Amino acid sequence: MRIDIVCALPQLFGSFLDSSIVGRSREKGLVILEVHNLHDYAKDRFRHIDDTPYGGGAGMIIQCQPVFDCIEKLKSEREYDDVIYLTPDGQTLHQQMCIELSISKNLIVLCGHYKGIDQRIRHSLVTREISIGDFVLTGGEIAAAVLIDSVVRLIPGAVSDAQSVLEDSFMNGVLDAPQYTKPAEFRGMKVPEVLLSGDHEQISKWREKMAIEKTRERRPDLLDKSEPT
Protein backbone atom coordinates (compact mmCIF):
# COMPACT_ATOMS: atom_id res chain seq x y z
CA MET A 1 0.00 0.00 0.00
CA ARG A 2 1.05 3.58 -0.66
CA ILE A 3 -0.36 6.60 1.16
CA ASP A 4 0.49 10.13 0.05
CA ILE A 5 -0.22 12.78 2.69
CA VAL A 6 -0.88 16.30 1.39
CA CYS A 7 -0.71 18.92 4.11
CA ALA A 8 0.33 22.37 5.27
CA LEU A 9 2.39 21.26 8.30
CA PRO A 10 4.43 18.16 7.39
CA GLN A 11 6.55 18.51 10.55
CA LEU A 12 3.59 17.27 12.59
CA PHE A 13 4.11 13.78 11.18
CA GLY A 14 7.75 13.65 12.38
CA SER A 15 8.13 10.75 14.80
CA PHE A 16 4.71 9.29 14.03
CA LEU A 17 5.85 7.88 10.68
CA ASP A 18 8.90 6.22 12.22
CA SER A 19 7.34 4.81 15.38
CA SER A 20 5.45 1.74 16.52
CA ILE A 21 3.39 -0.26 14.02
CA VAL A 22 3.47 2.42 11.34
CA GLY A 23 7.25 2.70 11.50
CA ARG A 24 7.77 -1.07 11.49
CA SER A 25 5.37 -1.46 8.58
CA ARG A 26 7.42 1.02 6.59
CA GLU A 27 10.62 -0.84 7.43
CA LYS A 28 9.07 -4.13 6.29
CA GLY A 29 7.96 -2.55 3.01
CA LEU A 30 4.29 -3.15 3.78
CA VAL A 31 3.40 0.50 3.31
CA ILE A 32 4.96 3.54 1.62
CA LEU A 33 4.14 6.83 3.32
CA GLU A 34 5.11 10.09 1.63
CA VAL A 35 4.39 13.56 2.98
CA HIS A 36 3.91 16.46 0.55
CA ASN A 37 4.18 20.04 1.75
CA LEU A 38 1.57 22.27 0.11
CA HIS A 39 3.88 25.26 0.57
CA ASP A 40 6.23 23.68 -2.00
CA TYR A 41 3.49 24.24 -4.59
CA ALA A 42 2.85 27.89 -3.75
CA LYS A 43 3.47 30.42 -6.52
CA ASP A 44 4.45 33.53 -4.58
CA ARG A 45 7.86 34.11 -2.97
CA PHE A 46 6.34 33.94 0.53
CA ARG A 47 4.94 30.46 -0.22
CA HIS A 48 1.39 31.42 0.75
CA ILE A 49 -1.24 28.72 0.27
CA ASP A 50 -4.23 30.46 1.87
CA ASP A 51 -6.31 33.60 1.48
CA THR A 52 -9.32 35.35 3.02
CA PRO A 53 -12.80 33.90 2.35
CA TYR A 54 -15.09 35.44 -0.24
CA GLY A 55 -18.10 37.00 1.46
CA GLY A 56 -16.11 37.91 4.53
CA GLY A 57 -15.77 36.13 7.83
CA ALA A 58 -12.99 34.98 10.12
CA GLY A 59 -10.21 32.58 9.26
CA MET A 60 -8.23 31.73 6.14
CA ILE A 61 -9.02 29.27 3.35
CA ILE A 62 -6.54 26.99 1.56
CA GLN A 63 -6.50 27.96 -2.10
CA CYS A 64 -7.22 25.73 -5.08
CA GLN A 65 -3.94 26.15 -6.96
CA PRO A 66 -1.44 24.45 -4.60
CA VAL A 67 -3.78 21.55 -3.87
CA PHE A 68 -4.69 20.98 -7.52
CA ASP A 69 -1.03 21.16 -8.56
CA CYS A 70 0.08 18.68 -5.91
CA ILE A 71 -2.69 16.13 -6.35
CA GLU A 72 -2.67 16.31 -10.14
CA LYS A 73 1.08 15.67 -10.10
CA LEU A 74 0.57 12.60 -7.91
CA LYS A 75 -2.27 11.32 -10.07
CA SER A 76 -0.12 11.67 -13.19
CA GLU A 77 2.33 9.20 -11.62
CA ARG A 78 -0.11 6.46 -10.53
CA GLU A 79 -3.77 5.64 -10.06
CA TYR A 80 -5.40 6.17 -6.67
CA ASP A 81 -8.28 4.30 -5.08
CA ASP A 82 -9.40 7.36 -3.14
CA VAL A 83 -8.55 10.97 -2.42
CA ILE A 84 -9.59 11.36 1.21
CA TYR A 85 -10.24 14.72 2.86
CA LEU A 86 -10.31 14.89 6.68
CA THR A 87 -13.14 17.19 7.70
CA PRO A 88 -15.61 17.52 10.63
CA ASP A 89 -18.55 17.20 8.24
CA GLY A 90 -17.33 13.96 6.65
CA GLN A 91 -18.56 10.43 7.33
CA THR A 92 -17.57 9.37 10.85
CA LEU A 93 -14.66 6.92 10.84
CA HIS A 94 -15.52 3.39 11.97
CA GLN A 95 -13.78 0.02 11.96
CA GLN A 96 -15.50 -1.35 8.85
CA MET A 97 -14.33 1.70 6.92
CA CYS A 98 -10.77 1.07 8.12
CA ILE A 99 -11.01 -2.54 6.93
CA GLU A 100 -12.19 -1.39 3.49
CA LEU A 101 -9.41 1.16 3.18
CA SER A 102 -6.76 -1.35 4.29
CA ILE A 103 -7.15 -3.30 1.04
CA SER A 104 -6.54 -0.21 -1.10
CA LYS A 105 -3.44 0.02 -3.24
CA ASN A 106 -2.88 3.79 -3.32
CA LEU A 107 -4.49 6.54 -1.24
CA ILE A 108 -4.13 10.30 -1.04
CA VAL A 109 -4.96 11.85 2.34
CA LEU A 110 -5.59 15.60 2.18
CA CYS A 111 -5.33 17.53 5.45
CA GLY A 112 -7.26 20.74 5.80
CA HIS A 113 -5.92 23.62 7.86
CA TYR A 114 -6.88 27.13 8.91
CA LYS A 115 -10.64 27.54 8.27
CA GLY A 116 -10.73 24.81 5.63
CA ILE A 117 -10.21 24.35 1.90
CA ASP A 118 -11.84 25.91 -1.13
CA GLN A 119 -15.05 24.03 -1.93
CA ARG A 120 -13.94 23.56 -5.54
CA ILE A 121 -11.21 21.20 -4.30
CA ARG A 122 -13.83 19.04 -2.66
CA HIS A 123 -16.01 19.02 -5.75
CA SER A 124 -13.26 18.24 -8.22
CA LEU A 125 -10.60 16.17 -6.46
CA VAL A 126 -11.92 14.60 -3.26
CA THR A 127 -13.64 11.20 -3.54
CA ARG A 128 -14.19 10.50 0.15
CA GLU A 129 -14.64 12.74 3.19
CA ILE A 130 -13.95 11.38 6.67
CA SER A 131 -14.34 12.77 10.20
CA ILE A 132 -12.75 11.23 13.30
CA GLY A 133 -15.43 12.70 15.59
CA ASP A 134 -17.71 15.58 16.40
CA PHE A 135 -15.06 18.11 17.39
CA VAL A 136 -12.73 20.55 15.66
CA LEU A 137 -8.94 20.36 15.46
CA THR A 138 -6.53 23.08 14.38
CA GLY A 139 -5.72 21.06 11.28
CA GLY A 140 -6.31 17.73 9.61
CA GLU A 141 -2.81 16.41 10.25
CA ILE A 142 -3.71 14.85 13.61
CA ALA A 143 -6.89 13.36 12.15
CA ALA A 144 -4.86 11.96 9.26
CA ALA A 145 -2.47 10.28 11.71
CA VAL A 146 -5.45 8.63 13.43
CA LEU A 147 -6.82 7.39 10.10
CA ILE A 148 -3.44 6.12 8.87
CA ASP A 149 -2.67 4.25 12.10
CA SER A 150 -6.10 2.58 12.13
CA VAL A 151 -5.68 1.44 8.51
CA VAL A 152 -2.00 0.43 8.47
CA ARG A 153 -2.34 -1.88 11.49
CA LEU A 154 -4.86 -3.94 9.48
CA ILE A 155 -2.42 -4.68 6.65
CA PRO A 156 -1.39 -8.35 6.85
CA GLY A 157 2.00 -8.55 8.57
CA ALA A 158 1.80 -5.12 10.22
CA VAL A 159 0.96 -6.65 13.61
CA SER A 160 2.93 -9.78 14.49
CA ASP A 161 -0.01 -11.30 16.38
CA ALA A 162 -2.77 -11.30 13.77
CA GLN A 163 -5.23 -12.88 16.21
CA SER A 164 -4.86 -9.83 18.44
CA VAL A 165 -6.12 -7.59 15.64
CA LEU A 166 -9.11 -9.85 14.99
CA GLU A 167 -10.13 -9.56 18.65
CA ASP A 168 -9.90 -5.76 18.84
CA SER A 169 -12.91 -3.67 19.79
CA PHE A 170 -15.38 -3.09 16.93
CA MET A 171 -13.98 -5.93 14.78
CA ASN A 172 -17.04 -8.04 15.69
CA GLY A 173 -19.41 -5.15 16.23
CA VAL A 174 -18.83 -5.01 20.01
CA LEU A 175 -16.25 -3.66 22.45
CA ASP A 176 -13.38 -5.83 23.64
CA ALA A 177 -13.77 -7.86 26.83
CA PRO A 178 -11.77 -6.87 29.96
CA GLN A 179 -8.12 -7.94 29.83
CA TYR A 180 -5.79 -9.11 32.63
CA THR A 181 -2.13 -10.09 33.01
CA LYS A 182 0.22 -11.28 35.80
CA PRO A 183 0.08 -11.28 38.77
CA ALA A 184 -3.15 -13.21 39.42
CA GLU A 185 -3.77 -11.06 42.50
CA PHE A 186 -2.75 -7.43 43.05
CA ARG A 187 -3.67 -5.44 46.18
CA GLY A 188 -6.50 -7.84 46.87
CA MET A 189 -7.91 -7.63 43.35
CA LYS A 190 -8.09 -11.04 41.69
CA VAL A 191 -8.20 -12.11 38.07
CA PRO A 192 -11.47 -13.93 37.23
CA GLU A 193 -11.02 -17.65 37.93
CA VAL A 194 -12.18 -18.67 34.46
CA LEU A 195 -9.13 -16.99 32.89
CA LEU A 196 -6.85 -19.14 35.07
CA SER A 197 -8.69 -22.39 34.34
CA GLY A 198 -7.02 -23.29 31.06
CA ASP A 199 -10.47 -24.18 29.66
CA HIS A 200 -10.36 -22.28 26.35
CA GLU A 201 -13.98 -22.97 25.50
CA GLN A 202 -15.20 -21.49 28.78
CA ILE A 203 -12.76 -18.57 28.45
CA SER A 204 -14.11 -17.83 24.99
CA LYS A 205 -17.71 -17.90 26.27
CA TRP A 206 -16.77 -15.64 29.21
CA ARG A 207 -15.08 -13.11 26.93
CA GLU A 208 -18.04 -13.07 24.55
CA LYS A 209 -20.45 -12.54 27.45
CA MET A 210 -18.34 -9.79 29.00
CA ALA A 211 -17.87 -8.06 25.63
CA ILE A 212 -21.64 -7.92 25.12
CA GLU A 213 -22.26 -6.70 28.68
CA LYS A 214 -19.59 -4.01 28.33
CA THR A 215 -21.02 -2.91 25.00
CA ARG A 216 -24.57 -2.84 26.37
CA GLU A 217 -23.39 -0.63 29.24
CA ARG A 218 -21.11 1.75 27.32
CA ARG A 219 -22.14 1.64 23.66
CA PRO A 220 -25.67 0.22 23.34
CA ASP A 221 -25.90 1.86 19.92
CA LEU A 222 -23.49 -0.79 18.59
CA LEU A 223 -25.82 -3.57 19.64
CA ASP A 224 -28.81 -1.73 18.14
CA LYS A 225 -27.06 -1.75 14.76
CA SER A 226 -26.59 -5.53 14.85
CA GLU A 227 -30.16 -6.35 15.87
CA PRO A 228 -32.76 -7.03 13.13
CA THR A 229 -35.35 -4.34 12.54
What features would you describe in this structure?
It is elongated, with a radius of gyration of 22 Å. The longest helix has 19 residues, at 200-218. The protein is built from 8 helices and 10 strands. The protein has helices at 20-28, 64-77, 95-102, 119-124, 140-152, 162-166, 200-218, 220-226, and strands at 2-7, 32-37, 50-51, 61-62, 82-92, 106-111, 116-117, 128-131, 185-186, 189-190. The mean pLDDT is 91. The strands form 3 sheets. Strands 2-1-6-5-8 form a 5-stranded parallel beta sheet, sandwiched between helices. A 3-stranded mixed beta sheet has the order 3-4-7. α3 (95-102) packs across α5 and α7 (200-218) packs across α8 (220-226). By secondary structure, it is α/β, with parallel strands linked by helices. It has 2 domains: 2-152, Alpha/beta knot, CATH 3.40.1280.10; 167-226, Trp Operon Repressor, Chain A (Orthogonal Bundle). Helix content is 35%, strand content 19%.
List the helices and strands and how they pair.
Blueprint: E1 2-7, H1 20-28, E2 32-37, E3 50-51, E4 61-62, H2 64-77, E5 82-92, H3 95-102, E6 106-111, E7 116-117, H4 119-124, E8 128-131, H5 140-152, H6 162-166, E9 185-186, E10 189-190, H7 200-218, H8 220-226
Parallel strand pairs: 1-2, 1-6, 4-7, 5-6, 5-8
Antiparallel strand pairs: 3-4, 9-10
Helix pairs in contact: 3-5, 7-8
